[in-house]
Structures are given as C-alpha cells and as structure tokens.
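Quick log. Single chain, no ligands specified.
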Amino acid sequence: MKWKQAWFMDESDEDPRLPHHRNPKELVPLDHLAELGVLYWRLNPKDYENDQQLRNIRETRGYNYMDLLNICPEKLENYEEKLKNFYTEHIHADEEIRYCLEGSGYFDVRDKNDRWIRIWIKAGDLIILPAGIYHRFTLDTSNYVKLMRLFMGEPVWISYNRPQEDHPARKEYIESFTKKVGVALEAH
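-> predicted structure:
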C-alpha cells in the first residue's frame, strides 16, 4: 500500500518548506518506512488527553515524559535559528517520537540507499523515528505545527550532525539491517 503522505524527494535546493516531489511523483509505501524502523499511527488529536490508543502506545513503549512544542515565528524563541538546526541532517541516540496535534510539517529520513524520503505529518499523525536514522525536520508552507514530544525517562534533545558513522546508535541502526530479514509492522 502506498501512503500519500510519504515520497522520495527531488534534489532541488529550493525552499525546504515546499513538497519537493520528484517528477513523476514516487510515493513510498508504509512497509518501506517500517523496514527503515519508522513507525506511524493515526490518532485523534482533538482528544489526546483522553485517547486510550495514545495511552496504550505510551505504556507499551515506555514513554513516560511528554511536553508540547509550538513551532511558528510567534511562539518559538529564536525561530529561524531553531528551524535551521532542525533541518540540519542528524541522528539521535534515542528514538524521536512526535505526535502532531495541529498544523503540519515534514520529517525527512534517509533510506538504505541514502535517498531522502519526505514524510508529511498533519494533525493526528504520530511518528517514531528509530535511534541512529539520519533525518531532519522542517515546516511546510503553513509555517505552523504543534507537536507532542514523547520520551523514555528524562528528555534528551541532543542532535549529532552527519557524519556519525562511528556513533553507537548509528552502528546499531545499521547493524539492524543486516540482522533482520524483515521487520514486522507494529503500527498502522
């Protein structure tokens, strides 16, 4: 099944807030994202405080810390600088878990062949990026997103800019491709 919210990106250096579809468009199936360790759920952002599915995900995966982040010029201090940092290709030593409550934006992830896949998240989308995957984030042309950030234990916001081939999280991520014949899709 192809997911209309994910596609291979073109090589253009135009405004990163644009969709950057290839010509012709090349959509990416959910199972391809799952093979990369990217998980996705569609939830109800209007009632996140009482959402049993969100509660189950948090309990099952051990996400015991949560905060909210508004990314827009009016609400984020040093907006331009932070957006530039978010868009710099990097990894984390832990999973990156983001639940879009309002607005929209793009997570870009590298596939096994080092191609960029653009994932368009909108209100209701919960995405988990595995530790060690090269990725970046930017807003789309709406210039606004409200995200819930989830963490296991104390929150860690440390980014390690590419190259990071010797970072333990990156090595473990790469090793997971050689060990697994297939990855079960835990999300939907």
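The chain has one domain: 2-176.
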